[in-house]
Design goal:
NAD binding; 3-hydroxyisobutyrate dehydrogenase; oxidoreductase; 3-stranded mixed beta sheet; 295 residues; alpha/beta; binds nicotinamide-adenine-dinucleotide; Rossmann fold; HIBADH-related; 47% helix; NAD
Length: 295
């Protein structure tokens, strides 16, 4: 069992840390918001006064923070986690951040004799609670084999995508594709409905034809087709529009750096951006279907 320091106990980090306690690991937690630590402490974790205090005695450090600037701020510099960690410590940053920061932090950790994986997740708060997250890791195979044993306490499918930053790249590629097929699924269903087709019947036809895709199969954006989907629950998230927009923003930034053509991803970002600005930022991302409905 590992001795884990878990930093960043928000919507995702909180339940992930609880699952590590349940899996039998020694867990010490820290968050800037005191109350965020309570639920995990109630399950048996110890509370640290600062992020650096959480390092004491930890062989594994997991972070789950909002964005790249928070990760760089915590890891780098003379007072950062990397400078203060004991040799051999394994870091796993599960936040969704830009690949460049992930590479920079990963290389800084390796240069210091530490191990580091970027390990962003697929799956939302429900998957974090259920311990069914997918992890997409970037780093070396030695760190991956070691980290996998801990990640198994929080998730099911754990992949090594490549070197530092590769986990973040896998994540933005996946979510850009998700945005594109969600929008395509929504507009196809609405086109059918505008022609008098029953969206349930059309969904069944497309599920058994070449239009079959994950959004149609698991997350139907048309209300009342799939009782368990957010579309049948007033588009309560689920996966919020603002989080999809964040991931599409990271994909677009990376496409500029790598000079990659991403016309479909770029259009998806524009559509989600204008949808978000109309008061939909905190609704489920499948609500994009409403863009195709006449007022
Ligand atoms: P959140 O805002 O709920 O939680 C972030 C936590 O980090 C907060 O509690 C905040 O106080 C803490 N924090 C920030 N800076 C800190 C610091 N320096 N030291 C200690 N604590 C600090 O965010 P979330 O929804 O838990 O998401 C976390 C990450 O996971 C993000 O990168 C997000 O994009 C990604 N993600 C979220 C979801 C989701 O459905 N919420 C799904 C997949 C991936």
């Amino acid at each position: 069992m590992a001795n884990v320091a878990f930093i960043g106990l928000g919507n995702m980090g909180g339940p992930m840390a609880v699952n590590l306690v349940k899996a039998g690991h020694q867990v010490t937690v820290f968050d800037l918001v005191d109350a965020a630590m309570d639920a995990v402490v109630a399950q048996g974790a110890s509370k640290a006064a600062t992020a650096l205090d959480a390092l004491a005695g930890a062989d594994t450090v997991i972070t789950m923070l909002p964005a790249g600037k928070h990760v760089a701020g915590l890891y780098l510099g003379d007072e950062g986690l990397i400078a203060k960690a004991s040799t051999g410590t394994l870091f796993m940053d599960c936040s969704t951040i830009d690949a460049e920061t992930a590479r920079k932090v990963g290389e800084a950790a390796t240069a210091q004799g530490l191990q580091m994986l970027d390990a962003p997740v697929s799956g939302g708060v429900k998957a974090a609670q259920a311990g069914t997250l997918a992890f997409m890791c970037g780093g070396d195979t030695v760190a991956f084999e070691r980290g996998k044993k801990v990640l198994e306490g929080m998730g099911k499918n754990i992949f090594l995508a490549g070197d530092h930053g590769a986990g973040q790249i896998a994540k933005i590629c996946n979510n850009m594709l998700l945005a594109v097929h969600m929008i395509g699924t929504a507009e196809a269903l609405q086109l059918g409905a505008n022609n008098g087709l029953d969206p349930k019947v059309l969904s069944e036809i497309m599920l058994n034809s070449s239009g079959k895709n994950w959004s149609l199969e698991n997350y139907n954006p048309y209300p009342e087709v799939m009782p368990t989907a957010p579309a049948s629950n007033d588009y309560k998230p689920g996966f919020m529009v603002q989080l999809m927009l964040k991931d599409l923003g990271l994909a677009m930034e990376n496409s500029l750096v790598t000079q990659s053509a991403v016309p479909m991803g770029s259009l998806a970002r524009s559509l989600y951006s204008s949808f978000s600005q109309k008061g939909n930022a905190q609704r489920d991302f499948s609500a994009i279907l409403e863009m195709f409905q006449s007022e």
